[in-house]
Every structure is written in structure tokens, then in C-alpha cells.
Amino acid sequence: MSFGLLKRVSVRLSLWYTLLFAASTAVVLVLVYYLVAQELERKEEEVIRARAKEYASLFQTRGYAERSQELSGLHCTPLRLEMSFLFGLDEGRAEAGR
Fold first, then answer.
1. pTM over 0.70
2. In this predicted model, what pLDDT tens digit does every residue of 5-40 receive, in sequence order?
3. Which of 4, 22, 42, 89 could form a disulfide with 94, with the two C-beta atoms 3.0–4.6 Å apart?
4. Which phi-psi region, left, alpha or beta, contains residue 63 (left: φ > 0; alpha: ψ -120 to 50)?
């Protein structure tokens, strides 16, 4: 690109508009990323708190000793362990559900 071309007002104005567009797009993308990340973190925290309340109510109704004895004999994945907490599955029913 020759230096004579950069002296033209239209070319310089186009370059400024391009720079302004790129900068404003970057700012908008960073803002959207930040807002989405905050919302996802809030939702995740909400889900964790809800599960903790469910587990707490299960332990209050069934007792810690009973639940720990039931779960100590289980050799299962974390999902099946959680299902056991939520739905009261024992080892036999969990195996039959496979």
C-alpha cells in the first residue's frame, strides 16, 4: 500500500471505522462472556444449594447411620449414588434397574 493512498480522507476514515467496529465488537463480546459466566455460576450455585437441601432433608428423615450403612455396601457411580440419595434405591433395586 503506498503512502499516497493513506493521504486520502476516505481511506483513513474507513480505517478508523474498521478500528472502531473491531474495538466495540470486542467490548460487547467480553461483556456478554462476563454476563453469561456470572449467570451460569449463579445457576450452578442454586442447583448445588437445592441438592444440599434435599440431602439434608433425607438425612433428617432417615437418619445418618441408616443412610451411611445403605451406601457403604454400594459400589456404584456417582450418578447412582445420587439416585440412591434422592430415591432411596438399595443395591438390589439399583442393579435391577440397569
1. no
2. 767 888 889 999 999 999 999 999 999 999 999 999
3. 89
4. left
Task: Find cell 454400594 and name the residue.
Answer: 74
Is residue 88 left, alpha or beta, with left meaning phi > 0 and alpha meaning psi from -120 to 50? left
3-state secondary structure 11-35: HHHHHHHHHHHHHHHHHHHHHHHHH
pLDDT in tens, 63-94: 666 666 656 655 555 555 565 656 555 544 44
Residue 80 makes CB contacts below 8 A (sequence gap 6+) with 74, 89, 94
CA pair distance 81, 64, nearest whole angstrom: 15
Place of cell 449467570: 39
Non-local CB neighbours of 40 within 8 Å, separated by 6+ positions: none
Q: Which residues contact 51 (CB under 8 A, 6 or more apart)?
A: 82
- Specify the residue for cell string 445418618: 64
